[in-house]
């Protein structure tokens, strides 16, 4: 008799994986979640207090950063990356994350590995105050190699229609505040993996792979506090495409340019190392966050207060530039 297990799919391991995962998902459940894991779909009611509630969604993955996690068998942080990539994006429009769904694919399921991956997702959801209400774990032997994993996710948030941040009020003279990144975050790892062949070489007093696996910073809680207090005119999450692609995305109309002063903040050592290894510095601003993971566009009069508030919240932030007339999008100097 031929069974599903003979084809490479172990149903029993899948059951064990779900059991291990449930405890992590349970930690994230907020008051608006109507059911737990195990149903065919997750259900979340809309919070009260929104006059014209708008749902804001985003989806993303970890990319090839997960290859380093698989090689070092360190799986419990890349789930944070997955959440961060999604919730930071929807945050750019002023949305508060409500819930998250994850997708894990592999060649051969190991319950402990999938549990570690979801632990990271759970940690990311806790950091962003959203609920992990469901997901999918797909075992696909013959498509993925044994030991290979991939992680993606989907976030939904909420914002009042009248409070959507879309850049419509940005004008020349507005200032740009950059909030420090935690490292490379989750973009550019195809180049990172090409540059760094020895993951165990010492870097800043520890194995290099530990620096490469530092999870993406989640900006939700501090930025939502700022939105309650100040007029935040536009925001950019600096992901793939770096400054060049992402900064202009905060503008809703043509005729504006963000001028970024590259010397206005310290460049993290990992990016300095890449430059030493031969990567063109100017090119890097089109690929990496270069030490700034999130950018706010604000009124000039609010800059000092916002920087002070961010510092009190434990966030390193800098005035990194301003908006001028002209249609170049972004200018690095």
Overall pLDDT score: 92
End-to-end separation in angstroms reads 69 Å
Q: How many strands, what sense, and barrel or not for the largest sheet?
A: 6 strands, mixed
Level of helix content? 25-40%
Name the assembly state: single chain
Order of helices and strands: HEHHEHEEEHEEHHEHEHHEHEE
Number of strands: 12
Low-confidence stretches: none
Strand content: 15-25%
Structural class: alpha+beta
Instruction: Write down the Rg.
Output: 21 Å
User: Within the largest sheet, what's the order of strands?
Assistant: 8-10-5-11-9-12
Number of helices: 11
Give the overall shape, derived from the CA principal axes.
globular
Pfam families: AIRS, AIRS_C
Domain PurM-like N-terminal: 54-159
Pathway: Purine metabolism; IMP biosynthesis via de novo pathway; 5-amino-1-(5-phospho-D-ribosyl)imidazole from N(2)-formyl-N(1)-(5-phospho-D-ribosyl)glycinamide: step 2/2
Catalytic activity: 2-formamido-N(1)-(5-O-phospho-beta-D-ribosyl)acetamidine + ATP = 5-amino-1-(5-phospho-beta-D-ribosyl)imidazole + ADP + phosphate + H(+)
Features of the shown structure:
333 residues, alpha+beta, 6-stranded mixed sheet, 4-stranded mixed sheet, 11 helices, 25% strand, purine biosynthesis, PurM-like_N, PurM-like_C_sf
């Amino acid at each position: 008799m031929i069974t599903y297990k003979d084809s490479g799919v172990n149903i029993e391991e899948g059951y064990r994986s779900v059991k291990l995962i449930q405890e992590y998902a349970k930690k994230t459940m907020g008051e608006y979640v109507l059911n737990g894991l195990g149903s065919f779909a997750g259900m979340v009611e809309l919070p009260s207090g929104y006059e014209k509630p708008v749902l804001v969604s985003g989806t993303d993955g970890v990319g090839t950063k997960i290859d380093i996690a698989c090689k070092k068998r360190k799986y419990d942080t890349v789930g944070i990356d997955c959440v961060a990539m999604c919730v930071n994006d929807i945050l750019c429009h002023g949305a508060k994350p409500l819930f998250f769904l994850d997708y894990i694919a592999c060649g051969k399921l190991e319950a402990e590995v999938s549990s570690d991956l979801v632990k990271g997702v759970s940690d990311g959801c806790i950091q962003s105050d959203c609920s992990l209400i469901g997901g999918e774990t797909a075992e696909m032997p013959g498509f993925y190699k044994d030991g290979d994993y991939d992680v993606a996710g989907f976030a939904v948030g909420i914002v009042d229609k009248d409070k959507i941040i879309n850049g419509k009020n940005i004008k020349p003279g507005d200032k740009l505040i950059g909030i420090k990144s935690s490292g490379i975050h989750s973009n550019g790892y195809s180049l990172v993996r090409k540059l760094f062949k020895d993951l165990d070489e010492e870097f800043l007093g520890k194995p290099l792979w530990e620096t490469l696996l530092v999870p993406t910073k989640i900006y939700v809680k501090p930025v939502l506090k700022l939105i309650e207090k100040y007029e935040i005119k536009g925001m950019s999450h600096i992901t793939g495409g770096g400054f060049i692609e992402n900064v202009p995305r905060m503008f809703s109309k043509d005729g504006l340019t963000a001028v970024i002063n590259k010397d206005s903040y310290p460049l993290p050592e990992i990016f300095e190392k890449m430059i030493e290894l031969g990567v063109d510095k100017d090119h890097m601003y089109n690929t990496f966050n270069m030490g700034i993971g999130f950018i706010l566009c604000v009124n000039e009069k609010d800059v000092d207060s916002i920087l002070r508030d961010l510092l009190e919240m434990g966030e390193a932030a800098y005035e990194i530039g301003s908006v001028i007339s002209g249609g170049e999008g972004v200018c690095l100097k």
